[in-house]
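A reminder from the course coordinator: this example appears on the midterm review sheet, so study it carefully.

Given structure:
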């Protein structure tokens, strides 16, 4: 896989062959998997019509896999650099391709997801009951921290917190209360810095509360995060802070930062069955349906 003229990543068959995926799902006890494209293929940087062409190609492929095998559900991608084309392709994903929703980047060519440019898109997503999955990409400060894999280890959690916080402060969840949004990687650093975020809202409303006067913690419970935190203490913390009904199983399959056996951490923590079922599948089903 190339990014410009540089090698971005070598990928194996489990990135594009559903038969390999189905075999690995069986080996790791996964019954249903939600498919989405790798963020580097969002192609938001491209000319809008070119972005639409690649999005349609990727969406057709995922829809084809989903149509053949009930083990898979699918999320599409759309050219967010052009709202008319993004809405057009979202409508096709939901009506014609019968996908469950869309995956979006945590920013669109540097614009926060709170930008008013995206509001018509959110309005239509709400009308279509289109679930949205926000995944970090094009991380802040990436060029200044190339060593030690820091963009993935530090930048991604910050990028996800950026997406959540900007949508809260920008009033997105207030303007579009039926929007169904989930954020990757345990919500990034948001759950662990929400106290600081709320304190900033309280002490500097002149800087923070300029577009939405409602405090950030009022929106906990209005969106989902996934469970991919790799640590028992972090898992208990996000359950306490974000709520046991708003955490969906996340795997990041099949990449190195993922959980090789999805749900292993949850299973090893030996929660009561009601909570375990919520974390392993029920919350995700609620978000997607």
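Designed residues:
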């Amino acid at each position: 896989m190339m990014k410009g003229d540089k090698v971005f990543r070598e990928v194996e068959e489990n990135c594009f062959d559903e038969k390999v995926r189905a075999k690995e799902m069986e080996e790791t006890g996964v019954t249903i998997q939600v498919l989405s494209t790798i963020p580097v293929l969002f192609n938001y940087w491209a000319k809008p019509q070119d972005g639409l062409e690649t999005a349609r190609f990727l969406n057709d492929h995922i829809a084809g896999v989903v149509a053949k095998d009930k083990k898979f559900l699918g999320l599409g991608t759309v050219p967010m650099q052009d709202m008319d084309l993004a809405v057009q392709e979202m409508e096709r994903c939901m009506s014609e391709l019968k996908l469950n929703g869309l995956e979006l980047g945590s920013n669109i060519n540097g614009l926060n997801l709170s930008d008013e440019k995206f509001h018509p898109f959110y309005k239509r997503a709400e009308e279509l009951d289109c679930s949205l999955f926000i995944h970090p990409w094009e991380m802040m400060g990436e060029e200044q921290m190339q060593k030690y894999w820091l963009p993935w280890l530090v930048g991604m959690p910050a990028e996800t917190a950026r997406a959540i916080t900007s949508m809260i402060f920008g009033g997105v969840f207030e303007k579009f209360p039926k929007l169904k949004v989930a954020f990757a990687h345990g919500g990034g650093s948001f759950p662990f810095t929400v106290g600081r975020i709320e304190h900033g809202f309280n002490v500097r409303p002149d800087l923070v509360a300029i577009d939405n006067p409602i405090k950030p913690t009022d929106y906990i419970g209005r969106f989902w995060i996934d469970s991919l935190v790799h640590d028992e203490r972090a898992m208990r913390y996000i359950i306490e802070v974000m709520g046991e009904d708003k955490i969906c199983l996340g795997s990041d399959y099949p990449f190195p930062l993922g959980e090789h056996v999805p749900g292993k951490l949850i299973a090893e923590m030996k929660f009561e069955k009601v909570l375990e079922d919520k974390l392993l599948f029920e919350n995700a089903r609620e978000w997607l349906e």
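The chain has one domain: 2-288. Residues 2-288 form a domain with the TIM Barrel fold (CATH 3.20.20.140).
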